Amino acid sequence: MFLWLMIAILVAVCSVAGFIYLTRRISAFGFIKKLSKDKKVLKYAISAGLIVLTGGIIWLIWDWINAIICLLHLVIFWLLCDLFVFIGKKISKKQASKCLAGFIAVPLTVVYLAVGWYLCNNVWETDYTLKTDKKSGDIRIVQFADSHVGTTFHGDGFAKYMEEIQKLDPDVVLITGDFVDDDTSKEDMIQCCEALGKLKTKYGVYFSFGNHDKGYYDPSYRGYSGDDLIAELEKNNVNVLQDDTVLIDDRF
Each residue's pLDDT tens digit in the chain (252 positions)? Predict the structure, then answer.
């Protein structure tokens, strides 16, 4: 609890400092000076208003956490661009526009976050072939982790991914943590467990807990506990492992 409190305080302090920094940097743009007639207080007010408006739109589209994340990313990129522009001026001995760093930082942040969003919302398959001198035979394993159901896709989307996994004809499926998230609804959780129950494998489906599966909050927050998740998984023939080891087919 203490650690989370310290993290929350740190994020709050960085957000406030970042807000002040962006307000000052945005106020240097020419259109802000024209709108404010170069009045200092009005410049800062318009700049702050633009930040609040942008953050509010992101909040409405996603949530307040993502709004803060976007703000902090912009601050980091702008600070880095300020540093590079400063170094460039020292090396070239030439003056640069006060807005140059901002002109670079804003589109760079948008592109970076857009790429991050795309990667977050698309599942990537990576194939590995592992070989050993031991005469243990072959086994086809499909392993996935961090589905965080509800944050990127819901129960229907998860079920479609299970259909894709089934096409790989796995001997065994391993789910290695963060199957659900703290905000995953009970309906999504049940639907996803049922999708796992439809998988046809030679040796079964195995599940181990990640830090989000049991949840950081009281079970009433999302409507079920870690034990409820275990019960739903086992009802759908998923083997739940907690500090356990299993020998599959006396070989693996």
Answer: 678 789 889 989 999 999 999 999 999 898 988 888 888 899 999 999 999 999 999 999 888 888 999 999 999 999 999 999 999 888 888 887 888 999 999 999 999 999 998 888 888 899 999 988 888 889 999 999 999 998 888 999 999 999 999 999 999 999 999 999 998 999 999 999 999 999 999 999 999 999 999 888 888 989 999 999 999 999 999 999 999 999 998 889
Q: Which residues contact 216 (CB under 8 A, 6 or more apart)?
A: 4, 182
Whether the Cβ atoms of residue 142 and residue 165 lie closer than 8 Å to each other: yes
| CATH 3.60.21.10 placement within the chain | 141-241
CATH of domain 141-241: 3.60.21.10
Q: pTM of the predicted model, to two decimals?
A: 0.76
